């Protein structure tokens, strides 16, 4: 149901969650549930937002809750967003935690080593 | 006293007086008897002593006689001194009466004073009985005449009775005046159903009132079978011959019953006569019918039988005529409706209530068609079984008497295929079952054919529509900020077939756009196919160095090979998207309408020539050029838009021109649909095609969306394309998209939290230096939001836009502005 927006794979020893397309009020809830079901057991999680073309406050809420939960469980997490683009703009406007944002996947994976 | 001659034989005058062959009375003037002879005493049984000196003559008369004595006898006697042959009934001593004729003479004294009355009394017994005999004979003659009159009246009534029911009504009224019967009933034979049916009675409380089979043991059925008159003279006779009558006779106090078969055919022999009914009439008291009466009764039976026969023939004839008229009218009615569903409904409406009290039409076409009318449908399972049997066997099923389903199921077939069934329940008392069956089978044949034709029509119509839709829906060029196209196609109303109107827009190269609208002669699948061929031909013929005039010449050659396209009309235009130069030509088509940014709209009347392949018209093809300033709109349309039966065509042009001008600043999307809505009535008989080309893109975008999260993405797609077309920088574009999404999400989550049907209006405009977006809802405002998530949404709106204004005077309107200057 959410396959068009979210795919799961591994990058090195980290679970990779790749989001794509427009994330908004209409699909954020479903996407959140799909991710939680898959990354429960992972020790490290990379969330790739580089192909997200739109992100609204519901998307920010999803990421906020997701990252918060992962950190509480001691799961190390990085968000990958482009240097510019809709996702970065929204996250910046919301003053999202800069320390877990990276601009490419390699660097994010390296951060979690 | 005079001296009497002495007779030669010994005849004593006293003895002569006493034993004369008449009675003698002598009375005083007051009537007191003073002398009476033996003859009178012997006739009356009185003794002389009882009368003489004790009684007056009038005392001996009956009471009527006494009155007559006072009013006639006494006055006449006093005036004339005598009266002759007055009839008096004398009351004898044993109270019997003696009819007499009386002569009296009044004797007067010297002073003319009355002294005595001498009376002779003649016995008139024999004469009176003879008179009575005469009277009785006269009464018999009168009775007979009355019967004849009643019979004549009935024969006249029967001749004027056109239906069985009226014949029965006339016959049942006969026995009472004609024979003095107490009541009578009439039964008719229904040969088709092998029944005898009670139809009328002067006293329905008597007799057994149920229908009976012709083979019944009941008296009525027996008499109907034998065809002979039966007189049941007494209850005893009934017990012996027709036991079923006994109870009824006892209960209703009848002692004589006459059972008269109503027959038709040769009168003098029983063979060959047919019994059509039975008239039963009864008498209180045992009544013996005379031979004369029995002859009249038989005559009545024959007259009534013939009248029934006549009425039946007449009934049958009229029924056949009605049926034929019904079938013809049904066929005509069904032909009026082309489409399947209305035709099916109309069939059922014809059948109920005219020939049936309930009917259902079930067709296995498409998703199935079910049309029903009338009350209290029969058992659904039984009906389904009968329908299945009739469909599989393709044979109509007529219910046998007493069948619990009680309705006829007719398979509807056409071209060897069973389309479905028509089930009808008819009134139970219909006669002539064989004719009825033939009629129903005829009805089913006609209905089957009419419905099959409607099905084919529906199929062809659907094919034509699909073809036309697929052709018209082909991708039109878009996404180029230099132009935008809005189109509208409206099919003909009144369930008419698709027409041959079409539009097209395509790019010859990246800077040259073609727009065209045309109209193919004819309707239906042929017109749709031709339209497709013509469109393809235009796309194939159009080229960088061709131009409208040469293209139309190419089309003229084309229609020489595709005859159905002959006389098609086309308005064809090419636009250079860089310079705005328009080149156009019209082959028999209505002139395009141009609205420049300034001034009034103008019909483009140059470069006109005859329709494609016209033999009589001017087919020298020319073209005309003019430059369109940015912001111009060009409208191409077909004649259905302005031709209206109730409006002259020049007025149509005027209205179109005025309305097009009025919408100069209206957004392009929906413009053509709006024009069609306004100019074309709901019942338009022609299809309509419009294409509006706008050079330079629209300044504003307006959208209305429902309070549904899924719609936000659709709005964003439109808004994104519009922002791109206006060359808005990506950063600004993303910010506007984010703010607008959040504002709409706010309206859905907040303003319309209790109203899933709320509508949100979004308007975005680009002015010289800024983008402005308004998002308005009619929802309710709950004061400052405590929802953290929504709070973040509002924060995002404020962060991404330069100015944000909330207007809560009616619902909530968010007005947001972002400057085009780099931030």
UniProtKB/TrEMBL annotation, chain A:
Superkingdom of the source?
Bacteria
- InterPro entries per the record? STAS_dom, STAS_dom_sf
Pfam entry (one):
STAS
PROSITE patterns (alphabetical): STAS
**Residues in domain STAS?**
4-113
Which protein are we looking at? STAS domain-containing protein
Q: Source species, please?
A: Paractinoplanes durhamensis
UniProtKB/TrEMBL annotation, chain B:
| CDD domains per the UniProt record, alphabetical | HATPase_RsbW-like (cd16936), PAS (cd00130)
What's the source species' lineage?
A: Bacteria, Bacillati, Actinomycetota, Actinomycetes, Micromonosporales
**Domain PAS, chain residue ranges per copy:** 30-61
Species whose genome carries this gene? Paractinoplanes durhamensis
At the top level of its lineage, which domain of life is listed? Answer: Bacteria
Protein name from the UniProt record: PAS domain-containing protein
Q: Which PANTHER family match?
A: STAGE II SPORULATION PROTEIN E (PTHR43156:SF2), STAGE II SPORULATION PROTEIN E-RELATED (PTHR43156)
A Pfam family annotated for this UniProt entry: SpoIIE
Check the record and name the InterPro entries matching this protein.
Bact_Sigma-Reg, GAF, GAF-like_dom_sf, HATPase_C_sf, HATPase_dom, PAS, PAS-like_dom_sf, PPM-type-like_dom_sf
The chain's coiled-coil residues are 127-161
Q: Which UniProt keywords apply?
A: Coiled coil, Hydrolase
């Amino acid at each position: 149901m959410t396959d068009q927006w979210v795919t799961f794979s591994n990058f090195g020893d980290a679970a990779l969650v790749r989001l794509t397309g427009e994330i908004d009020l209409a699909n954020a809830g479903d996407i959140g549930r799909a991710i939680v079901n898959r990354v429960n057991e992972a020790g490290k999680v990379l969330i790739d937002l580089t192909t997200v073309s739109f992100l609204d406050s519901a998307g920010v809420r999803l990421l906020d809750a997701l990252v918060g939960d992962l950190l509480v469980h001691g799961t190390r997490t990085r968000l990958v967003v482009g240097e510019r683009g809709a996702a970065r703009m929204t996250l910046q406007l919301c003053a999202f935690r800069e320390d877990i944002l990276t601009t490419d996947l390699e660097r994010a994976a390296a951060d979690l080593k | 006293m005079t001296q009497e001659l002495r007779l030669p034989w010994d005849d004593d005058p006293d003895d002569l007086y006493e034993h004369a062959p008449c009675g003698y009375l002598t009375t005083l003037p007051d009537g007191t008897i003073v002398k009476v002879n033996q003859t009178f005493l012997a006739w009356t049984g009185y003794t002389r002593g009882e009368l003489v000196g004790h009684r007056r003559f009038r005392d001996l008369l009956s009471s009527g006689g006494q009155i007559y004595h006072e009013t006639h006898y006494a006055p006449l006697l006093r005036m004339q001194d005598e009266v002759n042959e007055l009839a008096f009934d004398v009351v004898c001593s044993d109270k019997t009466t003696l009819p007499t004729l009386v002569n009296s003479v009044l004797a007067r004294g010297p002073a003319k004073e009355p002294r005595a009355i001498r009376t002779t009394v003649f016995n008139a017994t024999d004469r009176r009985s003879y008179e009575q005999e005469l009277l009785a004979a006269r009464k018999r003659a009168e009775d007979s005449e009355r019967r004849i009159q009643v019979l004549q009246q009935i024969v006249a009534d029967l001749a004027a009775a056109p239906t069985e029911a009226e014949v029965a009504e006339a016959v049942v009224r006969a026995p009472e005046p004609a024979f003095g019967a107490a009541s009578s009933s009439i039964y008719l034979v229904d040969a088709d159903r092998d029944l005898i049916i009670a139809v009328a009675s002067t006293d329905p409380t008597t007799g057994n009132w149920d229908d009976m089979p012709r083979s019944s043991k009941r008296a009525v059925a027996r008499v109907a079978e034998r065809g002979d008159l039966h007189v049941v003279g007494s209850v005893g006779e009934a017990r012996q011959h027709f036991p079923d009558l006994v109870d009824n006779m006892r209960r209703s106090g009848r002692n004589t019953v006459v059972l008269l078969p109503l027959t038709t055919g040769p009168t003098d022999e029983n063979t060959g006569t047919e019994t059509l009914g039975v008239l039963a009439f009864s008498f209180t008291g045992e009544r013996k019918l005379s031979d004369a009466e029995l002859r009249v009764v038989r005559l009545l039976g024959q007259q009534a039988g013939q009248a029934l026969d006549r009425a039946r023939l007449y009934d049958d004839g009229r029924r056949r005529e009605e049926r034929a008229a019904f079938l013809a009218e049904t066929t005509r009615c069904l032909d009026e409706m082309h489409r399947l569903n209305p035709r099916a409904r109309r069939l059922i409406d014809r059948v109920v209530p005219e020939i049936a009290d309930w009917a259902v039409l079930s067709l296995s076409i498409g998703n199935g068609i079910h049309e029903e009318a009338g009350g209290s449908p029969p058992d659904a399972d039984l009906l389904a079984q009968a329908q299945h049997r009739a469909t599989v066997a393709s044979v109509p099923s007529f219910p046998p008497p007493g069948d619990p389903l009680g309705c006829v199921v007719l398979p509807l077939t056409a071209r060897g295929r069973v389309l479905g069934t028509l089930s009808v329940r008819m009134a139970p008392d219909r006669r002539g079952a064989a004719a009825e069956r033939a009629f129903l089978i005829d009805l089913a044949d006609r209905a089957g054919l009419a419905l099959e034709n409607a099905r084919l029509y529906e199929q062809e119509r659907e094919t034509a529509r699909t073809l036309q839709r697929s052709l018209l829906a082909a991708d039109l060029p878009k996404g180029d900020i230099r132009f935008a196209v809005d189109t509208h196609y409206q099919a003909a109303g009144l369930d008419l077939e698709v027409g041959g109107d079409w539009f097209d827009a395509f790019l010859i190269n990246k800077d040259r756009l073609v727009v065209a609208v045309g109209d193919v002669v004819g309707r239906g699948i042929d017109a749709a196919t031709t339209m497709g061929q013509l469109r393809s031909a235009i796309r194939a013929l159009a080229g960088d160095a061709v131009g409208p005039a040469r293209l139309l010449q190419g089309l003229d050659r084309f229609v020489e090979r595709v005859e159905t396209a002959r006389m098609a009309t086309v308005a064809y235009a090419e636009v250079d998207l860089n310079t705005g130069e328009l080149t156009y030509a019209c082959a028999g088509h209505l002139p395009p309408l141009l609205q420049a940014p300034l001034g009034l709209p103008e019909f483009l009347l140059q470069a006109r020539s005859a329709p494609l392949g016209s033999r009589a018209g001017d087919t020298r093809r020319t073209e005309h050029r003019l430059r369109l300033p940015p912001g111009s709109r060009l409208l191409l349309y077909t004649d259905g838009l302005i031709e209206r039966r109730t409006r002259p065509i020049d007025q149509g042009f005027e209205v179109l021109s005025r309305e097009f001008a009025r919408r100069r600043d209206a957004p392009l999307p929906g413009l053509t649909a709006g024009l069609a809505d306004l100019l074309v009535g709901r019942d338009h008989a022609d299809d309509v095609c419009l294409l509006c080309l706008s050079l330079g893109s629209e300044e504003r975008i307006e959208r209305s969306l429902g309070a549904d999260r899924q719609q936000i993405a659709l709005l964003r797609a439109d808004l994104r394309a519009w922002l791109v077309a206006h060359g808005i920088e990506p950063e600004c574009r993303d910010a506007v998209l984010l703010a607008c999404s959040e504002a709409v999400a706010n309206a859905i989550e907040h303003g319309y939290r209790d109203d899933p049907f709320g509508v949100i209006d979004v308007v975005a405009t680009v002015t010289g230096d800024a983008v402005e977006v308004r998002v308005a809802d009619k929802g309710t405002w709950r004061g400052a939001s405590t929802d953290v998530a929504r709070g973040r949404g509002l924060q995002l709106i404020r962060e991404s836009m330069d100015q944000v204004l909330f207007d809560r005077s009616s619902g909530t309107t968010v007005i947001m502005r972002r400057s085009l200057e780099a931030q």
